[in-house]
Write a structure and sequence with these properties.
The structure is a homodimer.
Chain A (H helix, E strand, L loop, with lengths): L11 E6 L3 H11 L4 E7 L3 H15 L4 E3 L2 H6 L5 E4 L6 H10 L3 E4 L7 H14 L3 E3 L7 H11 L6 E9 L3 H5 L8 H7 L7 H10 L8 E8 L4 H9 L16 E8 L4 E7 L11 E4 L2 E4 L4 E4 L9 E2 H7 L3 H9 L8 H15 L7 H19 L5 E2 L26
Parallel strand pairs in A: 1-2, 1-4, 2-3, 4-5, 5-6, 7-10
Antiparallel strand pairs in A: 7-11, 8-9, 8-15, 9-10, 11-12, 12-13, 13-14
Helix pairs in contact in A: 1-2, 4-5, 5-14
């Protein structure tokens, strides 16, 4: 990033582009922050804008301006940052325009459609000096941050292998996507790959110092057949329903293996159209220990009883991340166990302090890129594909990451 | 297989080639079978032969002949089958010679060194009419067989994805391998791949009807760096120990993705040189449900409480495989929870009834091949490699598998 002015803002003025379920949720979290003002919001649908403008009014006593065309929102000079919880395929282009208009960009999670749009994000950020942050809430999860703390303290030894997944039965959500104006449906109807890697890859990338002394080198992906959505529609909507003839291209289970520059491996699994309880399928494994999410257990060589798992909870409490210690004392708030608030707050404080964001444009581009790279690999029979180095070699020695309460790289 | 004579043998006469820890263990199980006679045994080491010949004498009152050169054992006419718990890299060549000498071959588990030796197994079996069975004990595990029963009864719906692993901390065993004349050491010192796939792949291949209407198409493998063994040696033997300078090539974690002809995917993990409790990391996932081993849980759509795992144990008892029902009534015996006895018994009964074996030469060749294919993929940067069709197209319509109490394809 180019140097950022060291002014500190008293108030942070944010626009929100995209007011579906996720946009509304993030907005209500922002409305609880006294130092945040929402001058304007944007969506393609009037009803969504009205509903959300009303929420702002009820909570804060003013009505934000509403824009069907987000470009008009971006033209305003009284906005410091733009939050983009729009549909997946327009995250990058809106973020690029936001940076071009001199605003901090914050994208909701999702994958890229092309490597080119990832490069555009990076180059726009470099040229404009404006940060671009993916709002990857799971980086701020309590478990993930405690693990980060244990990793930095050396409990796992040298990291060797990590796993994660997005294992979430979305059959109902996707099948009802057209009715609910939800973007997933059209993606599942047409694409095939690791569509949603960042909930697990974000924290893993931070554990492995990706883009700061390490990088993702290559990946290969494999897709199973697609059966879950069609069966769900047949069973629940019936063979006469117009969706019964949809040919979904997205495989039910897509697995991805990634190799890192320092020899670590990462395994990802995308599993969203078969019946199952939710999991992010986490695993962190090093020369001294292993944590696995599905049995909520941990094992440390020479510490745990030989060959016996111990409950992760005990270690999580002992190695609580400083941010979460503070947060639990202050009172945990907001969605998804509190991490939505933290990731938003990390973004807001970066604007306030006029610093770079703890998830920066290189992180954002790298994590998003996994989606289109995995599509490429699946399409070519699991051929390994190269993950671009969006830092152009700077990952080797990018210097110390920014310190600060919300840092994901430094434990203070 | 060519047609086998329908004679039924009253006694089965077996030779054992390879009398390390595993060979001795199998031999003592055989000594408890009244219809099995052991005319001869073979090993490279005299002490092992003497010790095992003594065991036979103590238990059964006769001493088997001993041969340093297994070829002499194979020349005998009074042997019906040869069990080969030798070191990995000679399983195939001994099995081939055993079939050539008109004997049922039974190999202990392990991977192949080349595709060529897999083809040789298949062609030798076809030419001689002698069966060749991999003694994959996990195919006869209680959990695995109950799962097979549930799969055949349709509880999982259409199968989509399976996982398994060999996740076993072998640092002590491998590091002490030279002292203990164990074959693993030299493999870990020189190879890099999915060295030991069959404990998990065997049952999965049976679930997915591999070589009977389905087949393994392609695979891709990735290896992490190698750190666990060196660190273990440094920590436990010291930097002055001669093993401290060994450059182990085998990555600590090797992951493999396999695509099947009918669109199912399989994920395998080989994880044997880092600290951890044992697991075979199983997962079976279909359109109606999912089982995962690490949390000992199962979930069936519309049966389990919404989004909640249920204990697998309950279902295992309800859907106990008929073989295990009988076995538990008879009394479970022998190593590894009883499955060692069952797999040996399956082999012995095939000889007695002069039928093919329930794990046949095509199964054996296909499962073993994964090892050298994964080495090839790792060596070429995770390039996808084609799994040979050892049936030469017969997998499409091989007809009904053999019925029988020990069948892994038919539930009676």
């Amino acid at each position: 990033m180019t140097t950022i002015d060291k002014t500190t803002l008293e108030q942070v003025r944010l626009g929100v582009v995209g007011l579906g379920g996720r946009g509304s949720g993030l907005l209500s979290l922002l409305l609880n922050m006294d130092d945040v003002v929402i001058p304007a919001i944007s969506d393609l649908y009037d009803d969504r804008m009205e509903k959300n403008a009303d929420s702002v009014y009820k909570k804060r006593g003013y009505k934000p301006d509403t824009y069907k065309d987000y470009r008009q929102l971006l033209q305003r000079k009284d906005i410091d940052g733009v939050i983009i919880p729009s549909s997946w395929t327009v995250h990058a282009e809106i973020a690029i325009e936001a940076m071009q208009s001199g605003k901090y960009a914050a994208m909701e999670v999702g994958g890229a459609s092309s490597i080119d749009e990832c490069w555009d994000l990076v180059k726009t950020s470099q040229r404009t000096g404006m940060p671009c942050m993916m709002l990857e809430n799971c980086c701020y999860g309590r478990e993930e941050m405690a693990l980060m703390n244990m990793i930095k303290k050396g409990l796992f030894g040298e990291l060797i292998h990590c796993q994660g997944g997005y294992e979430h039965d979305l059959r109902s959500e996707v099948s009802n996507g057209i009715v609910n104006r939800h973007y997933r449906f059209r993606n599942y109807e047409n694409r095939n790959g690791e569509l949603y890697p960042t909930h697990e890859l974000g924290p893993i990338a931070k554990y492995l110092n990706i883009n700061r002394g390490n990088r993702l080198l290559t990946l290969t992906s494999m897709s199973s057949k697609s059966r879950g959505l069609h069966k769900y529609i047949m069973d629940n909507m019936g063979p006469e329903h117009h969706l019964a003839s949809v040919d979904f291209t997205q495989g039910d289970v897509v697995t991805t293996m990634i190799k890192c520059a320092h020899g670590e491996t990462i395994f990802l699994i995308h599993d969203t159209t078969l019946p199952r309880p939710y999991s992010r399928g986490g695993r962190v494994q090093g020369t001294k220990g292993i944590w696995t999410e599905d049995n909520a257990s941990i094992y440390f060589d020479g510490i745990s009883p030989l060959d016996q798992w111990e409950p992760f909870k005990k270690y999580m409490e002992t190695y609580e991340h400083p941010l979460w210690k503070w947060y639990r004392e202050e009172g945990v708030r907001g969605g998804h166990g509190g991490m939505d608030y933290l990731v938003l707050r990390a973004y807001v404080e970066s604007i306030k302090n006029q610093t770079d964001t703890p998830i920066d444009v290189y992180d954002t581009a790298t994590w998003m890129a996994v989606t289109c790279l995995s599509e490429e690999s699946v399409a070519t029979g699991s051929t390994p594909v190269v993950v671009p180095d969006f830092t152009n070699g700077k990952w080797i020695d990018r210097g110390q990451p920014l310190p600060g309460k919300y840092s994901l790289d430094v434990i203070e």
